[in-house]
Amino acid sequence: KEKKEKKSKDDDSDDDGEVKEEKKEKKEKKDKKDKKEKKEKKEKKEKKEKKEKSAKKDDSDDSDDDGKDGNDNLKFDDEELKSVVGVLKDFVKSKNGKPAVADFFEELRLQQISQVFDDKVRLYVVLEVLCGSAMDAKKVADG
């Protein structure tokens, strides 16, 4: 009898142990899942903050281009810009005054990259090269 009772007690303790182990495993899985979710949320939050920071940085960069002396971009009255205009005028002359649009754009883009100026200045350079220093509506229409 005692042996049977011991065995039944052992069986009961095994069942309790199995139940405890199952609960422990479920808890561990839940903890892992929670940690993973927290990590994903944290990563999403960090990505969002980075996007906001880069957007703010872009906004501040745009405001810097409004004539403040904090950048190295060429301005309309810079001496280096006159040399860019001269180079492009020579390019147009070498093509008998009628360069292919793609060739002209490529040469202009190369100058923009090497001399660092923005799109507004690039438009000015195009007009200066094609119309000359005395820009007026007639020359633009004829060009």
Strand content: under 5%
Q: What gyration radius follows from the Cα positions, in whole Å?
A: 37 Å
What's the story with the biggest beta sheet?
none
Average pLDDT level? 76
Based on CA inertia axes, which overall geometry fits?
A: rod-shaped
Please count the beta strands (DSSP E, at least 2 residues each). 0
Topology order in helix (H) and strand (E) letters: HHHHH
Classify the helix fraction into a percent range: over 70%
Tally of helical runs: 5
Class computed from helices, strands and strand pairing: mainly alpha
Uncertain segments are 63-70
How far is the first residue's CA from the last residue's CA?
115 Å
Structural descriptors:
single chain, 143 residues, mainly alpha
Walk me through what this model shows.
The protein is 79% helix and 0% strand. It is built from five helices and no strands. Helix 2 packs across helix 4 (119-131). The longest helix is centred in the first third of the chain and has 63 residues, at 2-64.
Write the layout of secondary structure elements.
Layout: H1 2-64, H2 79-94, H3 101-115, H4 119-131, H5 137-142
Helix pairs in contact: 2-3, 2-4
Outline of the structure:
79% of the residues lie in helices and 0% in strands. With 143 residues, the chain is mainly alpha-helical. About 6% of the residues have low confidence.
